[in-house]
């Protein structure tokens, strides 16, 4: 059953395994202890944030919010789930707790969050969850689970897109290598959000409306032994006005023309006939969308001439071949060589546009290989990326945390020997301040009731923990970062935007960042700050909570 809020139906989470039990045991033990102490309805505020940008970069893409909202909108423990909690906790736990649990929902919970697909930075709350402490405590692990991987993959995808360059098409091919079904579905969704153009994952296409793309595998090529296997060789022209009765012969004629061509100067000798049969057969099946994997036997000696022969035969019948895929070898060299041949063929045989035939490359691609290809020069138009993007091979987890910042209107702080782990107390607001050139300059957190920064008014931005780091900013534009996404089922809240809009937000925000924050090597850290008032309060609370040591 789906929940209704603000007149909008909010379905449950995409993965039906996302239930109130998808949490750590300690959330239930704490919920019991809060209940036992009579504290369970105390109003608590938690911040969800991360401490360090992933992949050695200086930016992160926030993703996973929609799933969190779907989760809380439908949050209710079923009887069998309560029975299981009863079996899992100590037998000394009182029955009244289970009665309480059976009535728990998120009607008293408020969620403020940065919009999904936004570019975000360490320490700034991505999500602020307020509500009865026992209920909000139960949300900690599922929220982290839904946001950590989503944001990591979206960031990874955005980084791959950044290196590949805006003009390149990025295809996500990772389902077979993903961490299980949820990893695969999630990767497809969040790669698309981070700027990929399409996925090979059919289920993700159906569930999220992501464009589907694909080629064919080596198995298809090697399954053919000879052109004699092709029974139905007829192919009608694209305008359906004529029919070629023996497409395979037409292909073979074109292959000899290529072999004897003057401008190709005898580049091509014998090619592999079983590969030619596979290509011809694929073209008969998909004359409008003929794409050939050209590296099964030998890219330059066989795959490319065979592809060209089939593509030219299709051209005779009014079809335009879709392109080739390279899946091994030196992709810079092979793509450049293939392009040269396509250009020569365009000239020699007068086939307009043949020189621009799309070249797709795949095989263990990652940021580094894309960067290396760019440095060498290449002719690849589209990249198919699997393992590295979906498994986030370069970094296993983002490390988002969920920390208590206020209870019963009393600010709370968590101290640590490691200053990066000290939490920023209070229910806060956060703003992005934009400079003269239109770039975001700094994110600033303030106490909830402080006046907001104003355009044209100088404001002091302080590093939260380093006294000497501070700067005045006169913002040209101020954007409040967190919006209300849940205020109980009846409360006014932001609508959940379609995936395409989230993707566009992401691409647009990434495009408006100052380039030095985005570069791969030694990027400049983006500044995250607090107001002078919040700074003073953090340090007052810090001194208040930290015991004074005694030297002997
Ligand atoms: N010009 C290039 N510069 C840098 N890296 C490249 C270049 N061309 C390909 N690569 C990368 O080099 C690696 C080649 O891997 P490997 O040697 O295992 O593959 P292969 O032998 O070409 O193909 P196969 O998958 O059939 O084994 C891949 O990760 C690929 O992305
Ligand atoms: O390399 P990835 O980035 O993970 O991209 C997906 C890979 O999956 C496919 O083949 P598969 O890897 O199954 O077989 P292969 O390694 O023998 O090419 C495809 O040809 C790619 O190589
Ligand atoms: O369509 C493809 O080419 C594809 C799909 C998944 C994995 N590798 C390649
Ligand atoms: Mg491979």
From TrEMBL:
<comment type="function">
    <text>Catalyzes the first step in the biosynthesis of NAD from nicotinic acid, the ATP-dependent synthesis of beta-nicotinate D-ribonucleotide from nicotinate and 5-phospho-D-ribose 1-phosphate. Helps prevent cellular oxidative stress via its role in NAD biosynthesis.</text>
</comment>
<dbReference type="InterPro" id="IPR036068">
    <property type="entry name" value="Nicotinate_pribotase-like_C"/>
</dbReference>
<keyword id="KW-0479">Metal-binding</keyword>
<dbReference type="Pfam" id="PF17956">
    <property type="entry name" value="NAPRTase_C"/>
</dbReference>
<comment type="pathway">
    <text>Cofactor biosynthesis; NAD(+) biosynthesis; nicotinate D-ribonucleotide from nicotinate: step 1/1.</text>
</comment>
<dbReference type="InterPro" id="IPR040727">
    <property type="entry name" value="NAPRTase_N"/>
</dbReference>
<dbReference type="GO" id="GO:0005829">
    <property type="term" value="C:cytosol"/>
</dbReference>
<dbReference type="Pfam" id="PF17767">
    <property type="entry name" value="NAPRTase_N"/>
</dbReference>
<dbReference type="InterPro" id="IPR041525">
    <property type="entry name" value="N/Namide_PRibTrfase"/>
</dbReference>
<dbReference type="InterPro" id="IPR013785">
    <property type="entry name" value="Aldolase_TIM"/>
</dbReference>
<keyword id="KW-0464">Manganese</keyword>
<comment type="similarity">
    <text>Belongs to the NAPRTase family.</text>
</comment>
<keyword id="KW-0662">Pyridine nucleotide biosynthesis</keyword>
<feature type="domain" description="Nicotinate phosphoribosyltransferase N-terminal">
    <location>
        <begin position="21"/>
        <end position="148"/>
    </location>
</feature>
<dbReference type="GO" id="GO:0016757">
    <property type="term" value="F:glycosyltransferase activity"/>
</dbReference>
<keyword id="KW-0460">Magnesium</keyword>
<keyword id="KW-0328">Glycosyltransferase</keyword>
<feature type="domain" description="Nicotinate phosphoribosyltransferase C-terminal">
    <location>
        <begin position="427"/>
        <end position="537"/>
    </location>
</feature>
<keyword id="KW-0436">Ligase</keyword>
<dbReference type="InterPro" id="IPR007229">
    <property type="entry name" value="Nic_PRibTrfase-Fam"/>
</dbReference>
<protein>
    <recommendedName>
        <fullName>Nicotinate phosphoribosyltransferase</fullName>
        <ecNumber>6.3.4.21</ecNumber>
    </recommendedName>
</protein>
<dbReference type="InterPro" id="IPR041619">
    <property type="entry name" value="NAPRTase_C"/>
</dbReference>
<dbReference type="GO" id="GO:0034355">
    <property type="term" value="P:NAD+ biosynthetic process via the salvage pathway"/>
</dbReference>
<dbReference type="InterPro" id="IPR006405">
    <property type="entry name" value="Nic_PRibTrfase_pncB"/>
</dbReference>
<keyword id="KW-0597">Phosphoprotein</keyword>
<dbReference type="Pfam" id="PF04095">
    <property type="entry name" value="NAPRTase"/>
</dbReference>
<dbReference type="GO" id="GO:0004516">
    <property type="term" value="F:nicotinate phosphoribosyltransferase activity"/>
</dbReference>
<dbReference type="GO" id="GO:0046872">
    <property type="term" value="F:metal ion binding"/>
</dbReference>
<feature type="domain" description="Nicotinate/nicotinamide phosphoribosyltransferase">
    <location>
        <begin position="322"/>
        <end position="421"/>
    </location>
</feature>
<keyword id="KW-0808">Transferase</keyword>
